[in-house]
Amino acid sequence: MSHPHATLAELFKAEYGRLLGRLLRQFGFAAFAAAEDAVQQAMLQALRHWPLQGLPQQPLAWLHTTAQRVMLDQLRAAPRHQALPETLNEVIEARDAACSGERFGRELVDEELILLLAVCDPALPLGSQVPLALHCLGGLGLRELAAGMLIPEATLAQRLKRARDSLAARAQRFELPGPEQLPQRMTAVLAALYLMFNEGYHSADGQHYSRREWCFEAIRLVRALAAHPTAAAPEVDALAALMCLHAARLSGRLDADGQALLLPEQSRDRWDQGLIAMGFRHLDRAGRGTRLSRYHLEAAIAAAHASAKDYAATDWAAILRWYEALIALDAQAVPRLAHAIALGEVHGPAAGLAAVEQVLPQLPQTRYPFGHCARAHFLRRLQRPAEAIEAYRKALSATRSEAEARLIERQIAATAAQACDAAATTKVETRA
Q: How many structural domains does the chain have?
């Protein structure tokens, strides 16, 4: 029998949204804050009782009944605090999420779908949609969310409260939106899940190079959307393909010592072949539509990397074409940087450097080292080591994690060593 703490942590991660959705279906969005508190209080009661009394035969039913009872008490009493108690936070955050077909395959029940569509209301700022979705559907606590989004807990708590209050004020029924509202809502949902995955893949909390649980929860939700008759669409499958193909690399991004690895350094034997196959299945289904979204294009780029037997075999010409199509849809700085890198791989480092330098002033100047890293990469290939090291140092000042910093420091050391070797060779040739 599983330990009660482990079982509760699993239930919290997997079923928080379902429990919350059931309460909201009964009591409406006007009781949003009370419903969240009721679920948390039910979890706390389980934390106190299960280790002593043993696991109930139906843990989810026990939690739902308890939450219902707490909910009724809450509605009769003064509002309680909304912060996740530390004791429960410790249990939840101590358990790492696992990448499994069972987790990814769990169906999205109507309560969860309605909840996801509700918290991803286009009327709410994207900065509120994402943490609310992570909290309501993924069961992530305030501390976890604030660290991942690089904002103080108090600021995030305020942001979430405003979002809840906004939803409650609308006094809307807990039901699927009509066909005329669904497309706009789905656009917001996919944008939120895309940001959720990216926050996991390139963690900005300073401690983690990536946060697998964020990536895997985003994959679970988008795959469940793709399988749901109301939400299924080629664009949803395209996003699922993109996430799966990127997540397949997670195990290969770090070596045995926890050192971050660049794409050319990664052993493709460590890439998750199951996730790659899953990604290609979604990509195949995404091709049944008539419109190419940015998710289609980014998935095609990820597929080109996944299908190459090694880095040298990468079809950069195809990737460049996909990026050209992408920046025609989205001309923001980050896609243009990726296009510049692909351009350099196809047309040489001088062309790549010129393109990177053109886009560099438009990139984020803090907590975003990738522009300076790209510039350093091309400078190094052009045998301009001093300038490359200077660019790497600028990137180092903008790193977001220790693993990222160590990676850049290795690049600085390697560039300096190459410069010394080149100088020594030149000296010998001159003497000769």
A: 1
